[in-house]
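During the second year of the project, the team shifted from modelling isolated chains to modelling whole assemblies. The rationale, set out in the original proposal, was that interfaces cannot be judged from single-chain predictions alone. As a representative example for this report, we include one of the complexes processed in the last quarter. Its constituent sequences, exactly as entered into the pipeline, are reproduced here:
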Amino acid sequence: MQSRQIYFCRRPDGKPAPDVFEERLVDVAAPRDGEILCRNVTVSVDPYLRLKMYDRRSYTPPLRIGEAIPGRAVALVLESRAPGLAPGDHVVIPGGWQQYALVRGEAARRIDLSVASPGAWLGPLGMTGMTAYAGLMHIGRPEAGETLVVTGAAGAVGGIAGQIGRLLGCRVVGIAGSEEKCRAIVEQFGFDAGLNYREPDLAARLGAACPDGIDIHFDNVGGEISRTVASAFNDFGRLVVCGLISQYSGQQHADPAALDEFMRLVLTRRLTVQGFIVSDLERKFPEFEDRMANWLQTGQIVHREHARSGFGEIVPAFLGMLSGENIGKSIVHLAD
Amino acid sequence: MQSRQIYFCRRPDGKPAPDVFEERLVDVAAPRDGEILCRNVTVSVDPYLRLKMYDRRSYTPPLRIGEAIPGRAVALVLESRAPGLAPGDHVVIPGGWQQYALVRGEAARRIDLSVASPGAWLGPLGMTGMTAYAGLMHIGRPEAGETLVVTGAAGAVGGIAGQIGRLLGCRVVGIAGSEEKCRAIVEQFGFDAGLNYREPDLAARLGAACPDGIDIHFDNVGGEISRTVASAFNDFGRLVVCGLISQYSGQQHADPAALDEFMRLVLTRRLTVQGFIVSDLERKFPEFEDRMANWLQTGQIVHREHARSGFGEIVPAFLGMLSGENIGKSIVHLAD
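Output from the structure prediction step:
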């Protein structure tokens, strides 16, 4: 059997283009002891992949040229030589951008698609939701009545982070890149306000939307927008550094004094700034899945996905996400 | 009775000059109920005062033009209408830059000059020592075997922070601005290495001095030096933002990408960056004074001071400290 597979063939300079990727046909081996052979049903495309394309130290090793693109997927077990998994089971696996995946049984998590859709298992109930929850709880430490600002608010993680903040009693203000996104985060996700950063005077609008200042910034974006948010921090504010998507495409600051000003805010307002990746924190929050499942089932948290269909749509979905095309979790359906 | 008093008469732009200050002669009132009248014996000059000269939000209100300069002092009680304090007692008070001070009894702390000198009461046993201890313990959280870098290492706070780190089992590397300072921190304070940032190739020398990377940076300096340190952080490194003396005199970054690069390090290495002032934290460390007194008495921590004498030396001592003239705590003796 053969599998279509997308691999990394060229390091992008700034914003990636389709020629960063190529497709090849690879032979799929039969599972050995402890392995399962799966067909990927739904593939996740995630911003962290952009970070892996730099040839420099990061939280995971850089992608090598020629390496298959990794990523989470919901998959169907076709053959199993692993205990507790049988053909016909649905699983979440590190399936990558390919049609078929051979993985160790321990790397697979059995899921029930009658409880939630593939997109929800990759989104709020998956790494995306855990990222939002763990970053907010561990670093943001929200208290009822505080003001939480979320950048990248219509994105997969941001939309969930803001909804969790609202459930915990925060005033939640989202910043996003279109009127449509701002409407969605207010009307569907229940944010208290949505601000379009492409309109002028973000600082003034942010001040008006946060009359008591800002206590927590859950940041997916970095760059100038984050700098604007930082200047409105209250004393003892917390900056959750979850992502820096403005950087991933080579956008840069223009002001040499920006770092000095930022550090002055950190000192004088006694801010806490902390970066994390979900794998650092997930063991600290064993309650996550039950809590999130309950929030989803009771409609207190809304899952929204931006879905495409077909193997050829994986790369466009990834590039589109980096350009901000999505509201909610970006996924690509490959098969039923 | 009259008192010479230094007040704030002009906001500096960048590095302060003597004309920021003027002297006046003020009448000293008799103490009312609950107050003590003191003669300042030894006055502390501290870098935080520079921050108070900006007309902008900071951790304490900005100095107003015409306001008397505040500051800690060791003083002799001349008259007391406060319980528990009598003429002849020595106290630490918010005495300011003046000859005589009238303060509330609750603001005074009786000290024993046979236990430690005025400079030590203002230094390691005072706000300076508490700043070093609380910042290091609360934010730095040193573990034996970790590497601690201290900038402003020959300064009042830096010299103590590094010595505490050494006692807690860290490898301690100091960065300072002269060969003499680097010798002092190694030979007198017991740092493992001292690096002169005025010599070329700081990054390479820092790498050589920290073969296992950097876990904690106790930062008094900010700016380019701190940026060099940040690039050598290990995963989960902690940046204790105690001071930014490079900024206080208008030095600035030249690189617009500096903030973006810094935030990339925060994210990918999962750094924690936190600012503080001592008053936020002092109640968390009730053991401080006993512990520090023991370290001083047993010679495990060395107190060094940079002392001048005479009222007219207060302003030169402050300006000299901002220029880095001192090794250890800067004080000015006014009287016996």
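The domain at 127-279 of chain B is CATH 3.40.50.720 (Rossmann fold). The mean pLDDT of chain B is 95.
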